[in-house]
Design brief:
The protein is α+β, with helices and mostly antiparallel strands and 448 residues long. It contains 15 helices and 13 strands. The chain folds into 2 domains: 135 residues, no CATH class; 290 residues, no CATH class.
Length: 448
């Protein structure tokens, strides 16, 4: 018999939990026999009483909907006692078995690395008396959401916790220097933004290029900063709010941070309840604060810096690069004002160029993604001309920047929607509340 309406809705909930919609061609083919490893005559009551059920859905990529019996990865056998199943794998891909009791909220159960052969999963016995459903999520090893855990060793005098997401190690300031620790929930929101910006299911993403982007962030062998993984520092307020400022030379020595900083690529900070920013309690301001500095980190440590001639110390001809050309075009046309970081000095001074490049790339990407509504009064003029706030505006007024973005940024950095961003950073969190869970939800879930 064909799927009942209730089962069809359950299947669609399964797909939506993965972030997508069911392909119509799949919807037409659904039957209980195709979706569940049971008889085609199984009714809904029997289904919901079954303790363990396998949805033979193999999800491809981060957030893709289920694809049934797809590609080279299929479920090859299912056993009922003990409940388990086997599936084919491909070398170089990761496979996460996920479980749910309601077809809406899924939790990772076990992670496997593809061997090129079959892998067997055996479930723990069900004890709740309620049905449990399983699916297999197919991904790549570069994509991984780490758990928040205690930081030990280098940097632990100041940073007390850490987590790593898609190649970026986030270190979280603890209860030190007269400041309370950064809440875990805010660290999860920052991690979620890194996850979203490295989402392989994003529009125009080149999976191979993005995987190399993450490898660069990790400092893998053969990348431009091999052996020096990317570090994102997260602290409260501002450096000067701590009894000993951990960002100046004296503070770095006081907190014994040199071993951490010197072994990583770290050029930027994310501030929780930024005490030098535009105010508290407004979600858009919080979102803009995080995105700006996440972009700084991703751009400066993940993009193809050699091709862009981003770092003059490695590219003696940096003034002939596409990045320099795009910056010069925007500056000379009065569409970008760099007065706050050296004026026009970046045209001849290598050190100022690096600083200006970081800010230009942030402004370019922010505007190409059309996030400019997050800025206070929707504007950053005069630093960034209002006619450059949209993709169309960039195309017209900074065509070299437009081309640079489409060549180097769009294939590797995904573009989450404003609605998604606003769901993470809501209004209402101030120093008085000091609880980011009151203002949006991170939706960050670690993988095994």
């Amino acid at each position: 018999m064909k799927c009942t309406a209730a089962i069809a809705k359950a299947i669609e909930a399964c797909a939506k939990a993965g972030g997508g919609k069911l392909n119509p061609i799949h919807t037409k083919a659904y039957s209980l026999k195709k979706v569940f490893p049971f008889s085609a005559t199984l009714d809904r009551d029997k289904l919901m009483k079954a303790p363990l059920v396998l949805l033979t859905a193999l999800l491809v990529g981060n957030g893709h909907p289920p694809i049934f019996g797809s590609g080279n990865s299929t479920v090859t056998s299912v056993t009922s006692e003990p409940f388990g199943f086997s599936f084919n794998t491909t070398v170089g891909r990761s496979y996460t078995v996920e479980a749910t009791g309601d077809l809406r909220r899924w939790e990772a159960v076990e992670l496997f690395q593809g061997s090129g052969g079959e892998i067997r999963f055996t479930a723990e016995p069900a004890t709740s008396g309620k049905p449990q459903f399983f699916r297999v999520f197919i991904g790549y090893p570069e994509y991984h959401n780490g758990n928040i855990q205690a930081l030990t060793g280098a940097g632990s005098d100041f940073f007390k916790k850490e987590l790593t997401v898609n190649g970026v190690r986030i270190v979280i300031a603890g209860d030190v220097g007269g400041q309370a620790a950064v809440p875990d929930e805010y660290a999860k929101k920052v991690a979620r933004m890194f996850e979203l910006f490295t989402d392989p299911s994003g529009s125009n993403i080149n999976i191979t290029a993005q995987r190399n982007f993450i490898k660069t962030l990790r400092g893998d062998s053969g990348t431009v900063h091999a052996g020096f993984p990317t570090l994102q520092r997260l602290a409260r307020g501002a450096g000067t709010d701590y009894s000993t400022n951990f960002l100046d030379d004296a503070g770095i020595a006081f907190w014994n941070l040199s071993p951490l900083f010197d072994s990583h690529m770290a050029k930027d900070m994310v501030w929780y309840l930024n005490s030098t920013g535009d105010g508290y309690g407004i979600g858009e301001i919080d979102a803009q604060e995080v995105i700006e500095h996440v972009f700084h980190t991703l751009h400066m440590h993940g993009l193809d810096s050699a091709a862009l001639k981003m770092y003059p110390e490695y590219s003696a001809d940096w003034q002939s690069g596409e990045l320099f050309g795009a910056m010069k075009e925007a500056y000379n046309s009065s569409n970008w004002e760099s007065e706050g970081y050296g004026g026009s000095g970046w045209k001849t001074n290598p050190d100022l160029f690096e600083v200006a490049a970081k800010e230009y790339l942030y402004l370019l990407n922010f505007s190409m993604f059309e996030y400019t509504g997050l800025w206070q009064d929707d504007s950053l003029a005069p630093e960034w001309n209002d006619n450059m706030r949209t993709m169309a505006g960039i195309y017209t007024n900074n065509p070299l920047g437009y081309a640079l973005h489409n060549t180097y940024i769009a294939p590797v950095i995904s573009r989450p929607t404003i609605a998604t961003i606003n769901s993470i950073f809501g209004d209402g969190n101030t120093p008085a509340q000091d609880n980011p869970a009151l203002a949006g939800v991170s939706n960050y879930f670690p993988t095994p």
